[in-house]
Amino acid sequence: MTDTPDDGYRLLRVTAIADPGPHLRRLRLEGPDLARFATDDDLHVRLWLPAEAGAAPPRPTLGPDGRPLGVARGMAGAMRYYTIRRIDAAAGWLEVDVVLHDAAGPGADFARRAVPGAICGMSGPCGHGVPSARRLLLAGDETALPAIARIAEGLGPDVAGIALIEVDGPRDVLPFDHPPGLAVSWIFRRDAGRHPLAAALGPLLPGFGGADDFVWIAGEFDQLQTLKPGLAALPRARQLCVPYWRRSEAGTPRS
Question: Average pLDDT, whole number, for the chain?
Answer without folding.
Answer: 91
